[in-house]
Specification:
heterodimer; A: about 210 residues; alpha/beta; eight-stranded mixed β-sheet; 8 strands; B: about 140 residues; Beta-Lactamase; five-stranded antiparallel β-sheet; 3 helices; about 40% helix; binds guanosine-5'-triphosphate; binds magnesium ion
């Protein structure tokens, strides 16, 4: 649920990184946090356990500047990808304004990607939200492993598995080195802000 | 759904928070929605990580509500953390909002709860005018 403060001319919106366990959601936020200036991004909060597995969520607040004279604040969240944490994913999804679905390019993760996307659609439906109405982009992560001998899913296969019905923008990425991280973030911010402004319509200029 | 608050409404909220909760000795009050947005803050503390506090509090509150549901309770009446120098009290405001009150041992929890209760009532009357337009305004 976006919040619009007309005393400060400020919009706050919530973007959630979703996807199967170990696909690289936390790594996306870490890269943004490490590479952005401290004027743009605040402190990252990570609630994790057992090494690098997210237990609850990661959180990173961004101040991305102005649109139509309104200051835009974006709160980035990740969900825990492991199947058993669905109750937690539902809590984090509450009031979501935009979603990045991060898919794992590893061939062995093919089904996990599809199941996680299905799980997202179900959780949105439970909140009374339709995925078709939600600002959404896909990210095909770990493309750097192309150069290794680990079998990867070709982009065309990821597209047909995940995006044939949705038809949303997708980005190839490697979150560990940062490729595609900003492209993904920029597109989801653009779509989310547009959708918030469209939904509140003329009320913003009062 | 979005929540829009005008300058007047924010001013009125600030007034209610000051007159009730801060004047009774609380150090800082933070108002958030349950999706983790920071609506406003007021008080004497210099809070650098206020957005993180709002986000983590909202998530913590939602998780606690889930615990209540799992053990067959509707809600816990008292959500309070006692620290060495500072205490935190969480109260729900309507269906979708949360008041986070930070206070030290110079003021009692009982007084804080009483004052928050009256603040919540006053805030509710502001938003009652909006009936039919969601809890506050949608
Ligand atoms: N080679 C490679 N490894 C990556 C990439 N992105 C993430 N990883 C690695 O994959 C592992 C899991 O990454 P995380 O970011 O913790 O995954 P997550 O999606 O947050 O996982 P959960 O919290 O369990 O849902 C880590 O060891 C990362 O270093 C990438 O682009 N390329
Ligand atoms: Mg993680």
């Amino acid at each position: 649920m976006a919040f619009i403060d007309l005393s400060k001319n400020e919009i706050q919106a919530k973007i959630v990184y979703y996807g199967p366990g170990r696909c690289g959601k936390t790594t996306n936020l870490l890269y943004v946090h490490e590479s952005m200036s401290k004027q743009v991004c605040g402190k990252m909060v990570t609630i994790d356990t057992k090494g690098d597995r997210t237990l609850f969520f990661d959180f990173l607040p961004l101040n991305i500047g102005k649109v139509m004279n309104m200051t835009i604040r974006i709160q980035l969240y990740t969900v825990p990808g492991q199947v058993m944490y669905n109750a937690t994913r539902k809590l984090v999804l509450r009031g979501v304004d935009g979603i990045v679905f991060v898919a794992d390019s590893l061939k062995v993760q093919k089904n996990k990607n599809v199941e996680s996307l299905q799980n997202l659609i179900e959780n949105l439906n439970d909140e009374g939200l339709a995925v078709s109405q939600m600002p959404l982009v896909l990210q095909y992560n770990k493309r750097d492993l192309m150069d290794s001998n680990i079998p990867l899913l070709p982009v065309a296969e990821l597209e047909s598995d995940l995006n044939s019905g949705l038809r949303v923008p997708f980005f190839e990425a490697s979150a560990t080195v940062g490729n595609g991280v900003y492209e993904t973030l920029r597109e989801i911010c653009k779509r989310t802000v547009k959708s918030v402004i469209r939904k509140v319509g003329g009320q913003i200029t009062c | 759904m979005s929540l829009i608050l005008t300058k007047n409404e924010i001013g009125r909220l600030e007034e209610i928070i000051s007159d009730n909760i801060l004047d009774s000795g609380a150090e800082h009050v933070v108002l958030t929605d349950l999706s983790g947005n920071l609506i406003m803050e007021r008080g004497s503390l210099e809070m650098e990580d206020i957005f993180s506090l709002a986000a983590v509090s909202a998530a913590n509150f939602a998780a606690t509500a889930e615990i209540a549901r799992l053990i067959g309770e509707e809600d816990f009446a008292l959500l309070f953390h006692k620290g060495g120098r500072r205490n935190v009290y969480f109260s729900r405001l309507g269906k979708d909002f949360l008041i986070i009150t930070l206070f030290n041992d110079n003021v009692s929890l009982g007084l804080i709860r009483l004052k928050i209760g009256s603040a919540i009532q006053q805030m509710a009357t502001i938003f009652e005018d909006r009936k039919g337009a969601g809890p506050w305004r949608s």
